[in-house]
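Running this now, will post back.
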Amino acid sequence: MLSKHVQIRSFQEQNDISVYINFDMLASPNFERGVLVPGSTPAPNGSSVLAAMFVDYFNEAGLPWRNSPFDGRSDYGMTPIRRH
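Update: finished.
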């Protein structure tokens, strides 16, 4: 099932989305700085660039972060993967 945000958009509008950033756990008392780093699993376009931006920022700011594997366990699976 696709999210409502995706359902209401045409195929072309979905393809026009460059990146999707999910900050749903920011206010959680048990938050972590996890970066979904694409590996062998197909990832949406732009994922590698976005992951690198966050890793660089966290490292430069001296903030701890954790590599979260891009393996289908999170709600990012609700966003369709489009290849151009």
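The chain has a mean pLDDT of 75. More later if anyone needs it.
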